[in-house]
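Hi V.,

You were right to ask for the full record rather than a summary. Here it is.
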Amino acid sequence: MTAKSSVDSVRMEMISEMNIPFPSIHEQVHIAQILSDMGTEIEALENKLNKYKMIKQGMMQNLLTGRIRLV
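Predicted structure:
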């Protein structure tokens, strides 16, 4: 359903009568809740990663200053 020229194009009259299905409101709410939960989980994992990076930095500092020695 494209108009041919040197570049494919879509014109308004080609798509103005198309039916575009949307999920029901209940399903949209469910999808939004899942995405929100995923965002919360990602944020928690990023916080955990930052915590581990700080621990690593502190351990490296202890190794570099000689407070801790590895055998």
